[in-house]
Amino acid sequence: MSPLPPASPEDVPHIICTVDVVLLTLIGARLHVALLQRAQAPHAGEWALPGGYIHAQTDEDAAAAAARVLADKLGVHGVYLEQLATFSGARRDPRGWSLAVAHCALLPADAVPAQGPAGAIRWVDVAGLAGTGQPAALPFDHADIVAAALARVRSKSQYSSLPVHLCGERFTLPQLQAVYEAVLGEPLNKVSFRRKMDELAMLEPVPGAMQTGAANRPAQLWRVREPYRQRLALTQRGL
Amino acid sequence: MSPLPPASPEDVPHIICTVDVVLLTLIGARLHVALLQRAQAPHAGEWALPGGYIHAQTDEDAAAAAARVLADKLGVHGVYLEQLATFSGARRDPRGWSLAVAHCALLPADAVPAQGPAGAIRWVDVAGLAGTGQPAALPFDHADIVAAALARVRSKSQYSSLPVHLCGERFTLPQLQAVYEAVLGEPLNKVSFRRKMDELAMLEPVPGAMQTGAANRPAQLWRVREPYRQRLALTQRGL
DNA sequence: CTAATAGTGTCTATAAGACAATATTCC
DNA sequence: GGAATATTGTCTTATAGACACTATTAG
């Protein structure tokens, strides 16, 4: 913090403080991001990441502001949410020097809403969205933010339980493996995957609950053990 | 971003936007963090992380503000600098709702200044500083910020070339291994360490340069290859 | 019975660590 | 030569992946 506070509030050029949320889910084994149509300029009418000003009167902190955006604009509650990075500078927003604390959120695939309190939600496949110079490019630096979220999710999925937050409360191990494979973009060895899930000691079988109905052996249903509902389980050496 | 811009600037409670820097270096094989004595309230006279307001007029972005703080308050230029996380909320600073984009910087051990442009620099061993309720506790939430920096550096050191930024331009492999061991807090296997450094392909021997003078076989001096001066080299499986 | 997928056993390949031999220097 | 540390070779152990076998269901 500076040794010299500003002489008066007018001396301090206004910094626009916002949060942006990259809400990701799996649709058809591919990661999709939630976009909302902007109601106001700049970029009115364009599809962009949900976000909003930080409300210093009511928001406990930036994470609470992001949770409020998720609830108020997307109708999404209680999902996994983590801070991603802060994007700032004079040129990213035409309104002036701005700062966005970007967050990343994961939504179970079986709970994807098409309509939120703030209008329709468009779910866009992240493939070809986070690169540069796309046909359907995102406004502001939102493509960079989505790219950072993707990198974070893929990186953390290599050594943690992060992808369980893309599953519902109960899931089979083949389903969970498919989620990991979708996020990582590569097939995984079944035996190694199960060994790792066993080592993580993060899952417990739901007693007596099996997924049946298909023309094959039923699969055991699993759920996340209580200590790992909020925090992640980590492996030492990946996978 | 919100669909409804504020009716007037006065409607927006002021958010104090700052950057804080956790500048780390190795002193006697232990990580130390640079602290400055605060000249102004709050916490005037206490030793705290160097930081300052973001200058929207002149700072390109938050990273530039952090680099400016490093230069102006510590006299440190050109070191490795990365964004850590953003700490925000109403209660972390008595002046009001504040937001600090924390950064982490690494300084070569052979270039530790004791005096900066803003006065003396105190280098404090991070052991017992980042926990809770220390005798020499840091003001604001700076203990949390230091803890986050430590966690980041230790985590990244497990699978990247990050610690080379704690070394000078030239170093021997035994020196580099000692740096890794100091950061990670555990001894490493010499053969494995050298295999990994070889795989990373990030170092090159300085032709003909050996570290001599000791009563033993001279050690080859190495430097970081050009492509890795700014970005990190990453391993797949750690170490 | 057949097809289909779940779950497991086991062998092989690869990576990490232990140990020790050799290489060079200063004294 | 002797002490000290750098560097390298090689064996052992641990981990990851390939492959195939058994289990269980619907039809």
Tags for this model:
7-stranded mixed sheet; disordered N terminus; 22% helix; homodimer; DNA-binding; alpha+beta; elongated; 239 residues
What can you tell me about this protein's structure?
- Two copies of one chain form a homodimer.
- The first copy, chain A, is α+β, with helices and mostly antiparallel strands.
- Helix content of chain A is 22%, strand content 29%.
- Chain A contains four helices and twelve strands.
- Chain A has helices at residues 62-74, 142-157, 173-184, 190-200; strands at residues 16-27, 30-37, 47-48, 51-53, 80-89, 98-106, 115-116, 119-120, 122-125, 171-172, 203-211, 219-224.
- In chain A, strands 1, 2, 3, 4, 5, 6 and 9 form a seven-stranded mixed beta sheet that branches.
- The longest helix of chain A is centred in the middle third of the chain and has 16 residues, at 142-157.
- Chain A binds chain B through residues 1-6, 9, 12-15, 17-18, 20, 38-40, 48, 51-54, 56-57, 60-62, 83, 85-86, 88-90, 93, 95-97, 99, 101, 118, 236-238, and chain B through 1-6, 9, 12-15, 17-18, 20, 38-40, 48, 51-54, 56-57, 60-62, 83, 85-86, 88-90, 93, 95-97, 99, 101, 118, 140, 236-238.
- The structure holds a DNA duplex (27 and 27 nucleotides).
Please summarize what this structure is:
Two copies of one chain form a homodimer. With 239 residues, chain A is α+β, with helices and mostly antiparallel strands.
β content of chain A, as a range?
Answer: 25-35%
Largest interface: A-B, 43 and 44 residues
The average pLDDT score of chain A comes to 92
As a percent range, the share of helical residues of chain A equals 10-25%
- Seen as an oligomer or otherwise, the chain set is homodimer
Give the overall shape of chain A, derived from the CA principal axes.
Answer: elongated
Number of strands of chain A: 12
Number of helices of chain A: 4
N-to-C CA distance of chain A: 41 Å
Main sheet makeup of chain A: 7 strands, mixed
SS class of chain A: alpha+beta
How would you spell out the order of helices and strands of chain A?
EEEEHEEEEEHEHHEE
* Rg for CA atoms of chain A: 20 Å
**Low-pLDDT windows of residues of chain A:** 1-9
